[in-house]
Structure formats: C-alpha cells, structure tokens
Amino acid sequence: MKTETNLNARQQSIITIAAFTASGDIENLKPALAEGLEAGLTISEIKEVLVQMYAYTGFPRALNGMAAFMAVVKDRKADGIKDEEGKEASPVPTDFNKDEYGAKVRAKLAGLDKDISGAEWQLFSPVMDTFLKEHLFADIFVRDVLTEDERELATIASLANMSGTQGQLFFHYGAAINSGLTEEQLNSFIEVLDTKVDKKQAQSAKAVLSEVLAKRNK
Q: Is residue 136 within 8 Å of 102, Cβ to Cβ?
C-alpha cells in the first residue's frame, strides 16, 4: 500500500510538520515546512497547525516551530517565491457559547451522543475540564482555517512523535476516525511516520493503532 493512495501531499505535510514541531527537531522541520508550501498548504494553514500544536506540545515547541516557519517564508520570499497567504479564521459570533460548543465537539470526537461528565479526573480538576472544553475544543476548533480531520491528523502526528502520550494517542486515533479519516488513511499515516519521521516512533504508534482498530472492529 502506498501512502499517496490514501493521504495526499497536503495531508502528509501536516503530519511531518506536526511531528517535527512536537519533537523540537527544527533541522527537519524547516524542509518539512517548505514541502508543505510546495504541496499546496497556505501560509495561514501552516500557521494554524503550529498554533494548534501549543495545546499538545506546549508553547515553547510551538513558538520554536513558528519561528522556523517565519524563517522559511522569509527565505522563500527572498528567492522570489510567492506563497499563498490563505484565508483567516472567520469571526466568532458575539453570543458564542464556548462551554456548549466545546462539549459538542468533544462528544463528536469521542463518538458519543453526549459529552463526558462526572469522570474522576473532571471532579478532581474541574478547571482542566473547563479549559479543555472552552479553549481547546471551542476557541481553537471553531477556527475554520483547518477542517476537523486535518486538526486530528496534526494531533495524532504530534502525539505519536512524543513519549508518554500513548493514552492521548489512543483517544485521538478514535477522534480521527470520528472526524472522517479512514482505517486505510491511518495505516498510511503510520507509513508516513516510518518513512519521513522516525521508524521507532512509527512502530510505537502502530501498536497503539492496532489496539484502537481491534477495539472498534469487535
């Protein structure tokens, strides 16, 4: 199976950009950013991937990624390459209810009719639950620069290229499927990790994916 069959060049670039941002590998991130622009990602779309990364990798890695992207865009401009800026996020309605929107998005990604509530961790730290709903799944996900499946592709790429995040990767594989990515595309995702990012991390990510698919296919 070839990755080109199931993931287009734009999607493959989202994977490598997110993965190298997560690991802080600026040396490999810069060519991945250039490849993303060549693959048809706009400047706004790549910036959006990097913005989302701070929610999963922390501000230091995301800011380093943004600095690398600024340098890439500047160098390409100096070489006479004109990259497409792309659209900005649409304005959010003044009556936007972050709690309701975030709860709806999280429930959809989890494959539930109703958002989770009353879990032990939510009772232990209600503020973390609030931030997840109102900021990550509302403030960030409402921005229409990227689609939900593109956001989940970026998320699983970042989680797959970090250590100690198997639990979150397990959830977000399911979220990726619930947002529209197919089993074939997720298998291709592993191939992209293996050939373009890191073979060891790809093996680990494949093991988690096998668990997810086995559970879903019962």
A: yes
CATH number of 3-90+143-216: 1.20.1290.10
Exposure string of 14-32, with b = 16+ CB inside 10 Å and e = fewer, is: bbbbbbbbbbbbbeebbeb
Q: What pLDDT is stored for residue 168 in this prediction?
A: 97
**Which class for 33: exposed (0-12), middle (13-18), buried (19 or more C-beta within 10 A)?**
buried
Intra-chain end-to-end CA distance of the chain, in Å: 24
* Each residue's pLDDT tens digit, 171-210: 999 999 999 999 999 999 999 999 999 999 999 999 999 9
Backbone angles phi, psi at 111, to 5 degrees: 75, 30
Residues 93-141: tens digit of each pLDDT? 999 999 999 999 999 999 999 999 999 999 999 999 999 999 999 999 9
Name the token pair of 1. Answer: 């199976």
The pLDDT mean for the chain works out to: 95
DSSP string, 88-104: PPPPPPTT--HHHHHHH
Residues 6+ apart with CB under 8 A from 41: 10, 13, 14
Give pairs for 149-152: CB < 8 Å, separation 24+.
149/176, 149/179, 149/180, 149/181, 150/11, 150/14, 150/45, 150/49, 151/52, 151/179, 152/109, 152/176, 152/179, 152/181
